[in-house]
Prior knowledge:
Blueprint: E1 4-9, E2 13-18, E3 21-26, H1 29-41, E4 49-53, E5 56-60, H2 78-92, H3 107-124, H4 129-139, E6 148-151, E7 160-163, E8 166-170, E9 177-180, H5 181-189, H6 196-203, H7 209-229, H8 240-246
Antiparallel strand pairs: 1-2, 2-3, 3-5, 4-5, 6-9, 7-8
Amino acid sequence: xxxxxxxxxxxxxxxxxxxxxxxxxxxxxxxxxxxxxxxxxxxxxxxxxxxxxxxxxxxxxxxxxxxxxxxxxxxxxxxxxxxxxxxxxxxxxxxxxxxxxxxxxxxxxxxxxxxxxxxxxxxxxxxxxxxxxxxxxxxxxxxxxxxxxxxxxxxxxxxxxxxxxxxxxxxxxxxxxxxxxxxxxxxxxxxxxxxxxxxxxxxxxxxxxxxxxxxxxxxxxxxxxxxxxxxxxxxxxxxxxxxxxxxx
Length: 248
């Protein structure tokens, strides 16, 4: 019998691996609905849906490996990063879906959440006030009008797989929808700033690097408390707090 591996687990959802099958358990069926619908629409490789029986979605494992992990070294070659950039560009050029995704919230809504979170970080003593203030200023660059694209919405480096410098699939589409393309690029390179240039070679278009840096700060500020409260460590080397410190 195959061993059961807990890939990720917290109060909202859990993902288990049994052999070549991933089992996603999510009490919120709307998230699973979005994921299945997005995978059917996108012009990039995604896992095969094996079966679905709420609250469980079974997906086939993808071949290949990720390009690294947050808090660890980037492991992919420049060509592999360029291939990832090309796949992300293909996604962003796809016809727009009807749904607005995580990367598509209004500037006003994101600004309000960011300001509230910055205040909470300082009031609780989780982060120093000067670190929060500096990154809040950097984050301002991301708070601007943007042209909608088909976005993944949570394109962490662990969500894209490459085999022999070819993208074999992208996973975890529950936040997909219309959104800011640079949100995806920034999320993918969070903690791996040195790989951004290789990614953009494949992406194939000029981007505003200040906006990318703004999203690095913004995303990190928004998730520090949530991660700490759900059993993750944003203070680990190379993770979100180090990303914030790098802006100082």
